[in-house]
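User: Could you check the structure of this?
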Amino acid sequence: MELNLSNTVQLITIISFTAGLVKFLIVKPLQTAITALREAITEMKDMLFRLDQDQKGIDKRLVVVEESAKSAHKRLDGMGVH
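Assistant: Sure, the predicted structure tokens are below.
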């Protein structure tokens, strides 16, 4: 096959069309999926941060309850109630 201007233009046209088709059928959906995953991961990170903060709050409250229970047990033991 002889390469001349007409054949070169045809090859460039076919390659460009194929590249555009690949971009439209493969790359674009992948970019959309990646963007959705990035957003989901960001939301999950935010949720995990909030859960961690909630857990820290629960831990602090649990310590207070445990100390209160110890104090109540000491008072009950001091009264001689078993």
